[in-house]
Structures are given as C-alpha cells and as structure tokens.
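Changelog note: in this version the structure field was regenerated for every chain. One regenerated record is shown below for reference.
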Amino acid sequence: MVHAPGTVQNVPQGLMIATAVTMGLGVLGSFLGFIPCLGLLNWGVVPFNLIVVVLAIVGLAAGPTKLDGTRAHLPLYVVALCLGLVCAAVSTLRCAAGGFVL
C-alpha cells in the first residue's frame, strides 16, 4: 500500500489522546479555579498541569514518528507543553494570592 509523504501510518494514538485530554482538563480546571469560592481547585490543578507537561515532554522526546522521520503530532505536544507550564504557573500564583490557605 502506498501512502502520501508525511502521512502517519500505524502510529499509536494513545499518547496523543492522553495529552490532548489532560491538556483540556488542565486548562478547564485552571479557568474554573479563578471563579470566586472555587480557588481550592488550584491545589489539584497545579499537579495535574505538571502531568500535562510530562506527557508533552515524553511526546516530544519519544513520541511516534511519521514515515519521513519527523515527529507525529508535534504541534499538539508543543502547545501542551506551553499551556501546561503557563496554567501551572498561573494556578500557583492564584494559590499564592490566597495565602496558600486551603
């Protein structure tokens, strides 16, 4: 079977799906943590966003490759890395603004 150049053939999608889902939940949790009386969410969102960062780094370093040797889903992993770091930092600052009080 002939495939077009740059297409993904038989590439495992599990890491991509896990990264996309955790990134979406992490960003949603960060936004919900800004609602008054829901700041307690930030305590759980910070470690969750750090998991997103770890998944993105794994995807960038050892993720699946296309037929031409380039990384598959590269934009997703870069966006997940950036959003995970930003959301973790913002949620940490939100915890600090509350005096780190539960």
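Spot check on this record: The first helix runs from residue 14 to 32. The helical segments are 14-32, 41-62, 74-97.
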